[in-house]
Design brief:
The protein is α+β, with helices and mostly antiparallel strands and 292 residues long. It is built from two helices and twelve strands; from the N terminus they run αββββββββββββα.
Amino acid sequence: MNKRIRNNIRIAIAAALLGSTPYAMAYTIDGNISDWGVTSTGNASDWTPNSGVEYAVSDQVNSSLSGGYVVNYTAPSNLGYGGQAYDAEAVYLDYDSTYLYYAVVTGRPENVSQYPAGDIAFDFGSDGSYEFGVETRGNNGYSKGDLVQVSNWALGNPYPAAGVTEIQSGSVVANTDFVYGSKIEDIGQYIYPYYSSTDDNHYVLEGRIALADFSLYAGQNFTIHWTMGCGNDEIHLASTLPGTPPGPGGEVPVPGTGLLLGGTLIGWTLHRRRQLNVTSTNTADSADSSDA
């Protein structure tokens, strides 16, 4: 094989290693989660997303939990009553090299005056601190989709045990892509062991956040959490943010294996080219000396 062709192949391989990522394709932020692999066929398996997506489902997990309306139901608490409109059903997470993507599915519609949807909370360290939230309704002076570094949360009322629900104050980090989707029917198997209801409505809170906005928390464990204003039901999911944690004193993180291998190949190729150039020059000089 021609040396130039071999060198070009090595460069192409190195470039592919540098540019490749293990992440999924980008999601369209439109409140339709078919691109997550979640379907609307009326079967319990509808909730299962594409391979690689992280998720938690509280809907239809255990009918003894007040008809699947709660995550942690303990009698005689009323937590979980109210029907489909007060149901926190599922949460999904995925990443690519640029964004964190999330989707929360609930039976709670967007434009309700009593016990409206809560904001989406992020708890780095999973210690109950909930440092960040995404504004879902455009409330308390914030715009819908604002990523807020929160200084004060409201709790569910009358069920504070469900956790934080509404951003009260904090600093806006960025306005992110977010949508509170329109009604979707027939997600999951339609079962009402405790309620005679025809309500099979589902709504998706979907968005994405630039990983750069969470750069100080790269590599950390965190929990995403959501509940409605009353705290009647809640859903949460633990995950780990991609990336390498910032080193002490601002040290540069160690590059990944692919980057190291790619850099090695490129360095070897450049070194080999220099060797070939030196050899060619020496040969030419020898030829000139012979002619003289």
